[in-house]
Amino acid sequence: MEPIDNYIDENRDRYIEELKELLRIPSVSAESEHKGDMIKAAEYISEKLQDAGMKKVKIHKTDGHPVVYGEWLGAPGKPTVLIYGHYDVQPAGDPSLWKSDPFDPVIIGDKIFARGATDDKGQLYIHIKSVEACFKANGTLPLNVKFLIEGEEEVGSENLEPFIIANKKMLACDSVLISDTSLYAPGLPTLTYGLRGLCYMEVEVTGPNKDLHSGSYGGAVANPVNVLAKMIASLHDKNGKVTIPGFYDGILQLSRQERENFKKLKFSESAYMKEVGVKELAGEKGYTTLERQWARPTLDCNGIVGGYTGEGAKTIIPSKVSSKISMRLVSNQDPKKIAKLFTAHIKAIAPKSVKVTVKELHGGYPVITPIDGKATIAASKAMERAFGKKTVYMREGGSIPVVAAFANELKAPAVLMGFGLNSENLHSPNEHFSLTHFMLGIKSSVYFFEEFSK
Ligand code: BES
Ligand code: MN
Ligand code: MN
C-alpha cells in the first residue's frame, strides 16, 4: 500500500463528517424557497476546494444558481482534467416516506442516508477529497485539475451552457471527468459511455370555463380529464412504440456488437422486478430490458393533475387538467425537433371540444462518448486498481444535459466514472450512498490522476 492509500483510509471518518455537513444543506434547485441554501452549498464547496489546495476558487453568479469554479495548474506540460459535478438535489418529496430526515444524514451499516447522498453530493465530494489526499500525501498533483460544480443540473442546466460558452478559455481541458452515474453492480468497476437525452413538455387541456355539475352537463360537454387521458394513451401503439410521426427518424440502431456486449452483462429480470415491486415488465417489443433502458427512446407521463381527488365524492366535469410528459432520447434525436413534433402531434389529435396548450420545459441532447480515448483507458485502469476487478462498460437511461456541451463547446470527451447504484433511491425517498464505494471512489480518482498524467 502506498502512503496516499494510508492517508485516505486514516481520514475516512473526517471525510464522512464533512460530507454530512454538505448533505445537511437543503440545496433543492427546483424550489425557490431554497435560494439561500443554494448559496450556502456553493460556499461550502468553495471552502472545501480551497482547503483541498485548489486555486482561483470562485463562486460565479449566473442567471440562476451559482457555479463554483477552482483550478490548480501547477503541472505544465501535463494534461488537464475538468471535474464536473452538481451540488443541487431533487426535492425530498413526501417526508412520511423517509425513514429519517432527508436533510439530517444518518449512517446505517455501510450506507449514508440523505437527499443528495448518491446524486450527486457524495459523488462529487470524492474528487475534492482525492485532490486533498494528493496534496497532503504527495505534496502535489500529477496533472492539472479544474473543478466546475453547478447548482442547476436537476432542473436542466439551463444557465450552464452559456457559462461554458462565455468561459471556454478558463474551462479548456483534455478531458472531463464526471461522477454522477452508477456502477453496474456493487463492487463492480463500471464506466458509462452513453446517456439518453431528454425532452420535457407540459400539456394543459381546458374544457368548460368552470367546473360543471356532472349530472346536468355530463354527456354534453367534453371532460378535459377524459380527453387528456385518451390523448396520452394514444401516444403508444400496441407494440409499445411512440406514435408521434417522425419520432424515430434518424435514430442510430444498436450494432450487433453492442447488443452482444449488453447480453454479456449479468441481468436478472426477476431480481429487477422484485426490486421495483412489479410482476411484469413493459415497453417496446423486440428489445431486451437493457436495450429499452439504455438505447431506445421512450415517452412517459410524469404526472397528471385535474379535477377532484379529495375526500368522498364530488360530482363534476372539471374545467382543466394538466400533465407533464417527458421523452428520453437516443443518438441523433434532437430535443428541440422532438419538442416541435410532439407539440404538432398533440395539437393535431386534440378534439375541438377542448383548448390545448403545450409548453416546452427543458431538454438535453443524448451522448455517446468514445471508449478508446486516453482518458477512458486511464479511468478503466484506475478503477481496476481500486476495485481489484476488470472494468465493465454500460450505457445509462438517465440524462446529464451538459455533457453534450462539453463535447461541442470544449471539444473534450467526458469520462463517466460513477460510483452510485441505481438502487440507491436517487430522486426517491431514502436516498443513500455506499461508504465503501465512496472510499473506493476517492482511490479511483487519485489513480485516474496518476494514469492520465502518464
Ligand atoms: N445523476 C443523474 C443522471 C443519472 C440518472 C445517472 C440515473 C445514473 C442513473 C442526474 O442528476 C439526473 O437526475 N438527471 C436528470 C436530468 C434532468 C433533470 C434534466 C434526469 O435524468 O432525469
Ligand atoms: Mn446527478
Ligand atoms: Mn438527479
Which labels suit this protein?
single chain, 454 residues, alpha+beta, Aminopeptidase, Alpha-Beta Plaits, 2 domains, four-stranded antiparallel β-sheet, 35% helix, 22% strand, globular, binds ligand BES, binds manganese (II) ion
Overview of this structure, please?
The protein has 454 residues and is an alpha+beta fold. It has 2 domains: 2-195 and 366-453, Aminopeptidase (3-Layer(aba) Sandwich); 197-251 and 297-364, Alpha-Beta Plaits. It contains 14 helices and 18 strands. It has helices spanning 3-10, 12-23, 35-52, 117-138, 160-166, 168-171, 224-233, 256-264, 269-276, 289-294, 335-349, 374-387, 403-410, 435-453, and strands at residues 55-60, 67-72, 80-86, 106-108, 111-113, 144-150, 175-178, 190-195, 197-206, 212-213, 298-306, 316-317, 320-329, 355-364, 367-368, 392-396, 414-416, 432-434. Strands 1-2-6-3-7-17 form a 6-stranded mixed beta sheet, with helices on both faces. It has a 4-stranded antiparallel beta sheet with strand order 11-13-9-14. A 3-stranded antiparallel beta sheet has the order 4-5-18. Strand 4 and strand 5 form a beta hairpin. Helix 2 crosses helix 4, helix 3 runs parallel beside helix 4 and helix 12 packs across helix 14 (435-453). The longest helix is centred in the N-terminal third of the chain and has 22 residues, at 117-138. The radius of gyration is 23 Å and the shape is globular. Ligand BES is lined by residues 119-120, 153-154, 156, 180-182, 198, 362, 364, 396, 398-401, 422, 426.
